Amino acid sequence: MSFKGKIVAVTGAAGGIGQSVCRYFAGEGAAIAAIDKNASVKSFASELKHEGMKIAYAVADVGDAEAVKKAVAHLAAELGPVDILINNAGFSDHPTLMQTDPKGWQADMNGNLNGAYNCAYAVLPSMQQRRSGSIIAVGSVNGLSALGDPAYSAAKAGMISLTKSLALEYGRYGIRSNIVLPATVRTPLWASRTAKRLPRFRCGGRGDGRGTPGRLRADGRQYRHGA
Ligand SMILES: NC(=O)c1ccc[n+]([C@@H]2O[C@H](COP(=O)([O-])OP(=O)(O)OC[C@H]3O[C@@H](n4cnc5c(N)ncnc54)[C@H](O)[C@@H]3O)[C@@H](O)[C@H]2O)c1
Known about the structure:
Blueprint (H helix, E strand, L loop, with lengths): L6 E5 L4 H12 L3 E6 L4 H10 L4 E5 L5 H15 L4 E4 L14 H29 L2 E6 L11 H21 L4 E6 L4 E2 L4 H7 L6 E2 L6 H6 L10
Helix pairs in contact: 3-4, 4-5
The protein binds nicotinamide-adenine-dinucleotide.
Nicotinamide-adenine-dinucleotide binds next to helix 1 and helix 4.
């Protein structure tokens, strides 16, 4: 599957799944527009550049719509307009409802759900103009079931709905919208928690699903939309 000439924006690019997804698309010839709130995205971008891959980065919190707008404009000026957006940034800080105070609820909703909306909002006008594009959300099985982390789960459920709304409104412009719902993947997000909570369970490695966004985007899969 080649993504030569495509510009792929990946949010949460400095994290476990984000790094794997960036490497996957860059390895298939894409130029990567890496976005993360953590400044370590800079050293990750240098690492990939050093390996001969094409990548530019921006440090931005996806929950901040203005910061996202600036980051997307900066990356588009450097690489070109975004063809594929992977809404991967996410986190979970509050394991139970009682530990989730109203401020925590808002923070989890903002970083997970609003962030996905902000990024889609920033790239859609150019995609619509070009009548082409793909937006892929990294949701979670938490979005389908109650597995703890209620604010995170509600945000991930919201991402499923957002994915379907994007598909409904933008399919006519040749823009596809899909979501992947990973189960547990051993990344920095989970490393300490799996040791405590899932002692006998084999969770996925961070590379296990990295090709999934690519398969959803593949030109042979044009029929897959809103899924
Ligand atoms: N690891 C799992 O078990 C698992 C399971 C299902 C879904 N997911 C989802 O996969 C995605 C990636 O998770 P991961 O396991 O790689 O976690 P991770 O903690 O390794 O990486 C997440 C990255 O996102 C960045 N980030 C978080 N909030 C941000 C924000 N508001 N703005 C910009 N960057 C932000 C972090 O700085 C980090 O680099 C998340 O959306 C997560 O919910 C993970």
